[in-house]
């Protein structure tokens, strides 16, 4: 049971929905072509791709597994193309919404995913839903599978452009915060800047690789001129998306550089202020040390006479100097000599 698969037979008289049971008959008809849109390549869808269409097993495997980069393979009767569209996720993550296409002479098979579980079905089927709605209201009448593929891929490119517009709005808001001096949390602000840069780089990579694919497809031999122009137009649109992303990325890089310069200037000024404060503290500490040395020196100078006076003030019984006629002059002279000697020593050592 193929759940969610939509099958349209598209001809001059319009588009008519069908079921999987009608595929063999539809593919055998000479008029019109068939569009099969598969929302998810499960086992049942893989059997249809392999048994009904006879696609290469590696191409079918490519529909069932994640393809990290766009790619194309040219087979004998069809072309297999893998493209990606961006979808914003949480915390700056960019989801790569995969769209696989098998483009044949009388059919177009589009396969979605596999995608991250966080991606909604509406987002995953955005491009094919838009093309189907245009067919239903008569605004799109594709005559060939290549023309229908052109419409689907054009919708994918518009989504890439809308994503760039979304990121650009964020970039402008970030730039206004920088120039207005409204950044209060530098770490969180830098995170927002680099998330925006990541988004632009992601869509730029998608467009650049897809541009290379379609430029190569436009050079394939045997491609009718009208279809070659359609493929070339897609390549030109991918080139435009890449240039848009490059321009906004350069603008954002200027904002990042400006903010980093502001941070460097602020850091330099803060370091200079801190150095000045350290210098002032050092000078104060040095001056305090000088004062302490002076106080200590004078304390030592006055301590020497005090020591002599203290010794002679003990009044012990057996002190010869007490009855010596020159005892008093000797004590005074000793005090003076000791004080002057200490003064000379401290002076020589620049303590005074």
UniProtKB/TrEMBL annotation:
Membrane topology field: Multi-pass membrane protein
InterPro entries recorded: CorA_cytoplasmic_dom, CorA_TM1_TM2, MgTranspt_CorA/ZnTranspt_ZntB
The keyword Hydrolase appears for this protein: no
Reactions listed under catalytic activity: Mg(2+)(in) = Mg(2+)(out)
Keywords: Cell membrane, Ion transport, Magnesium, Membrane, Transmembrane, Transmembrane helix, Transport
Keyword set includes Transport: yes
Superkingdom, natural source: Bacteria
TM spans (from-to): 295-314, 326-346
GO molecular function: cobalt ion binding; cobalt ion transmembrane transporter activity; magnesium ion binding; magnesium ion transmembrane transporter activity
Gene Ontology CC annotation, any one: plasma membrane
Compartments it resides in: Cell membrane
Function of the molecule: Mediates influx of magnesium ions. Alternates between open and closed states. Activated by low cytoplasmic Mg(2+) levels. Inactive when cytoplasmic Mg(2+) levels are high.
UniProt similarity note: Belongs to the CorA metal ion transporter (MIT) (TC 1.A.35) family.
PANTHER family hit by this protein: CORA FAMILY METAL ION TRANSPORTER (EUROFUNG)
This protein's name: Mg2+ and Co2+ transporter CorA
Organism field: Actinoplanes regularis
Taxonomic path: Bacteria, Bacillati, Actinomycetota, Actinomycetes, Micromonosporales
